Amino acid sequence: MNPFRLWVYLQTAPLFWLTATLGAYLIADALARAVGRHPLANTVLISVALVAVLLKISATDYQTYFNGAQFVHFLLGPATVALAVPLYRNLALVRENLLPMAAALVVGALVAIVSAVVIAAALGAPRVVLISLAPKSVTAAVAMAVSERAGGLPSLTAALVILTGVLGAIVVTPMMNALGIRDYAARGFAAGLASHGIGTARAFTVDPLAGAFAGIAMGLNAVATPIMVPLILPWLIR
Amino acid sequence: MIRGFFLLLACQLVGEVLARGLGLPAPGPVIGLALLTLGLAAWTRRRPMSDDQIAASDVGRAATGLLGSLSLLFVPAGVGVVQYLGLLSEHWVALAASVVVSTVATLLATVGVFLLVKRRLAA
Q1: For B29, which of A80, A117, A212, B17 could close a Cys bridge (C-beta 3.0–4.6 Å)?
Q2: A5: pLDDT confidence band, cut at 50, 70 and 90?
Q3: Which of B14, B121, B105, B90 is nearest to A159 (CA)?
Q4: Which residues of chain A have a CB within 8 Å of the CB of B102?
């Protein structure tokens, strides 16, 4: 077979991009492990960069890539359901912390929305960008729906959600260590609330209890933010 | 393993049906998370299980497998950001400042309130 035709076949086949996604992740994970899971060596960030370079070199569009990668993407749903297992295994601690969690949820979700919109507005971002920023701390599917309903750009929101997740996952560990906070329930809860699933993934690599609380915060914020955004936005954006 | 995975998918499916059917603000998988938590509570009430037994159960192993590689699952969506580099670079100063400051502020506010309320309750 002509090698060019073989490449054309591979480049458009789901198999190639699914394999490339897993390969990029394995390389990123090995790199992260080599540097002792340093927060800057974020596996999502490195994997995305590797795949993005590959797409650029091969001039492949995102849709073609996603045809293969969708099989991995699909697992986000059952993985979210699976957070019930660490939640249940830590149920005694969850019960003990119900009130701190409720208070932190309301304040944290409010700060996430208000600070994002106010800062971008002060720097002159247009209305549609401000709306797209508002739900940035919540898991992608929910954030996109909130953004669309409020008149934002769901695709811009999706990109901002991922950036917020990666950033939160990078800063959370050094920040909490610098503040001397050793309560892993509180640390995890903050990671999941501010930076959804990517923060939760980071929390699981630091401490299983932090992971469990991050998962709960992510789930709770997925309920709180869609309720808060339409109530708060009219006050922030005229 | 298959039984565990089936249970996760079934919870998501019921969650999806409830979320869409009743127009709930939470997405299907989050409702599924709540359903599986309630299911585990009901199941272990009937026949008590130790933490190790939960971890070694079908659903426990499926969950550990998926959550152990949670970062991988965000890669396809993450690669999507590359499509919007143009849109992001147009307002990059405002967006970068907003995302960085807001994420740090949210982490601080959340952890601060959590610990404050916890200490008040303990006092």
Answers
A1: A80
A2: confident
A3: B90
A4: 111-112, 115-116, 119, 136-137, 164
